[in-house]
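User: Sequence recovery, please. Input:
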């Protein structure tokens, strides 16, 4: 949440300078300047108290506007106090005094708001009759008539006022015009902005936060505003590359945080300093990469920097934030996220004519509203003030119920009145989470997880609106409840752990080196011989609920785009066996080949014409499938790779030597994959999918070193809540382009770290491009108590791997296992 940058400006732009400077306070705490933070907070509360008193005594005060203004300040103050408490400051006298003072101020404001008439200041053209001097004279609230005309959106009136001012404007006049230009930019009134720029507003003017007009233009995301302001700044010879007071952010850093490539290119052409560092040591490139804007970060020039310090050197070692959530025996856990988790489908969580979960101008005129969420059979209730100011993606509603209770969620819309203080339920809706459990057949569910239910008015029972949420029900797993120690965090002087990707490497079309069929026992054995400590492989579930190792969504070897979860184990193995010598499946784990009556070993099919014909037939059978058309090949197929038989998870655990560690990726189908393949977005039910894998581990893993991982956030949550034996890793592209997976929690390094810490995961495995581009971010990941791993094509470059090793990466997932193992051996 970025107080002072985005959220509050949706509500009261003209009061921007009066808000608590949340970003400054947060920076002071991160830098361990706690005494300065208390002084700043004390001063801020005093200033805010004076402003609130002046507004309450003003006859034109809008209580609703003032209420939202105070709501955001309240959230900022309480979050700062909570951060100070986490630094062990709860017993500090200043802490207690400020807490009591703030509570008193809030109570007094609520009482006084109830007695203020709901009047709204209206600016008319009568203001033009004022003298020229009066145009720039502030009233009781500090607003001049020019301020009020800009706030009211009266472009013609603003133009008349500017024309009536002297041609040679003094410093005070230019400063007032510079100040109201900030307000006009936040309100995005094109005509007024043009008039103020035409009238030579002072573009050197900096707000109390140290922001220039260019800061504001960048924050609202308008390329045209940024271009006009920048052009005017250059004409006035005003500096355009100045840092603000809170975080020492220049306009370039704000643009990188929002990923606005057009504005970034504009600022680069204007000569913005790309090497500038903010108060915490962040560069613009690191801010862009951290937030998942890798295409934007690539626009910025690389520069030499140490691998430590700045964002990679956090003041405190933050531990994973877990609310002690665990799915115990005879329990179900309901997890519901308001709205959607899809980046490309923005959906309002709550949508009613008079209120919404997202801010909408013109609503909330009939009172303040809360959304209360509860689960049948759970004592807890969760409330969220509307509109929702906090990011809910990693702050879902969580309820525990008995496994004998049908999972249901109740959404109540509550109206809060001040005179007298009371709460009234005005609308409600109930979601039956188990209602469609058999809609797609036994143990099946849709990959579209959002649900939308109607909200009914309490009095009339007519539909008043809707609520959209993304639910997940976690059921318990009775085994694997004892932790099995595994140390993956590297020692300061040791090399990272090397993991063979899909065994000895992913099969690719380059044919640059000998490739063993991926996800096969032969490939696993080869990877270990080449120097891998762990082997990574993908596990999917067949239609008859068998765990098999396979990467791709579709079994193209069958000649169709049928997904793995729609074929039986017998059909899956048959697609592999048809490529082998008749009746003589290859054995990569020591079993000998059959011999003829004379005791002779049969000739290898790879040396005969029949083999070539067979390979051509297989390719011809697959040529019309979506996957084959995109890649031009299929992994582990005759004629392209050293082929081995497909395997089940049980076979791998039983036959693979016990000293070989396994990185088991739970390859649950994702929505964008089914859309791309043109198949129905339906898969095995999540709990069943995970339980089948865990059951195999319980029966056959013994004391083998195992880590579990997945690209699917819900799979990671289930693994974390169902079992305690094995560490869980979240795998993410972290904004790597082109982005195909629109999952919000996987869209950036920032989102992935927050998600992993929220659910107590062991670590995150990133697409390595982000950390190769900005290696200091490795320290930020590890500073949050997480193990940091990477995967991707650059991990086959020894130089890139050494760079990551020096930055502190713990796990390297690579295809060229032997090549990388030799380089890592030199670092030991």
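Assistant: Recovered sequence (828 residues):
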């Amino acid at each position: 949440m970025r107080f002072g940058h985005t959220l509050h400006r949706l509500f009261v732009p003209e009061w921007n300078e009066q808000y608590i400077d949340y970003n400054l306070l947060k920076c002071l705490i991160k830098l361990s300047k706690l005494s300065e933070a208390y002084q700043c907070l004390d001063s801020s509360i005093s200033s805010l108290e004076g402003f609130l008193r002046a507004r309450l005594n003003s006859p034109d005060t809008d209580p609703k506007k003032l209420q939202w203004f105070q709501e955001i300040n309240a959230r900022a103050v309480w979050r700062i106090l909570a951060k100070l408490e986490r630094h062990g400051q709860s017993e500090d006298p200043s802490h207690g005094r400020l807490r009591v003072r703030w509570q008193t101020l809030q109570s007094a404001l609520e009482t006084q708001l109830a007695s203020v008439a709901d009047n709204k200041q209206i600016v008319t053209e009568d203001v033009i009759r004022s003298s020229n001097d009066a145009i720039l004279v502030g009233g009781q609230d500090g607003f001049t008539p020019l301020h009020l005309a800009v706030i009211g959106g009266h472009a013609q009136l603003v133009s008349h006022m500017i024309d009536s001012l002297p041609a040679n404007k003094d410093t005070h006049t230019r400063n007032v015009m510079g100040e109201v230009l900030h307000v006009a930019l936040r309100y995005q009134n094109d005509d007024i902005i043009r008039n103020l720029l035409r009238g030579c507003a002072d573009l050197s003017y900096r707000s109390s936060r140290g922001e220039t007009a260019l800061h504001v233009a960048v924050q609202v995301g308008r390329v045209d505003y940024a271009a006009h302001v920048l052009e005017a700044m250059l004409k006035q010879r005003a500096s355009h590359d100045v840092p603000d007071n809170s975080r020492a952010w220049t306009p370039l850093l704000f643009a990188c945080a929002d990923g606005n490539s057009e504005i970034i290119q504009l600022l680069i052409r204007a000569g913005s300093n790309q090497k500038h560092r903010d108060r915490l040591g962040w560069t613009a490139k690191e801010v862009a990469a951290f937030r998942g804007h890798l295409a934007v970060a690539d626009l910025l020039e690389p520069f030499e920097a140490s691998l430590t310090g700045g964002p990679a050197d956090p003041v405190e070692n933050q531990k994973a934030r877990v609310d002690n959530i665990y799915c115990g025996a005879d329990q179900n856990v309901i997890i519901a996220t308001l709205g959607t988790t899809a980046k490309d489908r923005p959906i309002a969580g709550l949508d009613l004519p008079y209120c919404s979960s997202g801010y909408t101008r013109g609503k909330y005129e009939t009172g303040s509203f809360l959304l209360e969420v509860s689960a049948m059979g759970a004592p807890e209730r969760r409330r969220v003030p509307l509109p929702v100011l906090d990011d809910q993606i990693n702050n879902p509603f969580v309820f525990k119920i008995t496994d004998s209770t049908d999972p249901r969620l109740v959404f109540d819309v509550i109206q809060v009145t001040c005179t007298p203080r009371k709460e009234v339920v005005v609308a409600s809706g109930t979601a039956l989470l188990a209602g469609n459990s058999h809609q797609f057949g036994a143990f099946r569910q849709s990959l579209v997880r959002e649900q939308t239910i109607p909200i009914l008015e309490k009095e009339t029972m007519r539909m008043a609106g809707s609520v959209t949420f993304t639910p997940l029900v976690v059921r318990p797993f009775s085994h694997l409840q004892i932790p099995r120690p595994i140390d993956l965090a590297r020692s300061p002087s040791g090399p990272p752990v090397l993991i063979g990707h899909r065994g000895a490497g992913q099969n690719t079309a380059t044919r640059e080196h000998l490739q063993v069929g991926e996800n096969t026992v032969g490939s696993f054995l080869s990877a270990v011989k080449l120097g891998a400590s762990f082997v990574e492989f993908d596990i999917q579930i067949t239609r008859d609920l068998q765990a098999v190792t396979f990467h791709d969504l579709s079994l193209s070897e069958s000649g169709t785009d049928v997904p793995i979860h729609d074929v039986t184990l017998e059909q899956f193995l048959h697609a592999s066996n048809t490529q082998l010598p008749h009746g003589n499946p290859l054995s990569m784990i020591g079993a000998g080949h059959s011999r003829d009556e004379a005791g002779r070993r049969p000739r290898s099919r790879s040396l005969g014409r029949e083999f070539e014909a067979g390979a051509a037939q297989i390719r011809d059978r697959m040529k019309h499938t979506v996957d084959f058309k995109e890649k031009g090949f299929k992994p582990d197929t005759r004629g392209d790779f050293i082929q081995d038989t497909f395997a089940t998870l049980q076979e791998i655990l039983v036959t693979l030597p016990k000293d070989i560690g396994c990185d088991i990726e739970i390859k649950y189908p994702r929505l964008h994959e089914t859309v791309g393949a043109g198949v129905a977005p339906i898969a095995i039910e999540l709990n069943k999918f995970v339980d089948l894998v865990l059951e195999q581990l319980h029966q056959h893993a013994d004391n083998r070193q195992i880590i579990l991982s997945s690209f699917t956030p819900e799979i990671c949550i289930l693994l974390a809540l169902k079992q305690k034996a094995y560490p869980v890793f979240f795998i993410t592209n972290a904004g790597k382009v082109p982005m195909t997976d629109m999952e919000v929690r996987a869209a950036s390094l920032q989102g992935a770290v927050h998600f992993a810490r929220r659910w107590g995961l062991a670590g995150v495995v990133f697409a390595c491009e982000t950390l190769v581009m900005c290696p200091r971010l490795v320290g930020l990941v590890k500073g949050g108590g997480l193990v940091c791993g990477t995967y991707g094509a650059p991990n086959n470059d020894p130089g890139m791997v050494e760079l990551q090793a020096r930055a502190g990466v713990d796990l390297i997932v690579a295809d060229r296992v032997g090549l990388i193992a030799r380089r890592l051996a030199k670092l030991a």
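Residues 7-113 form one domain.
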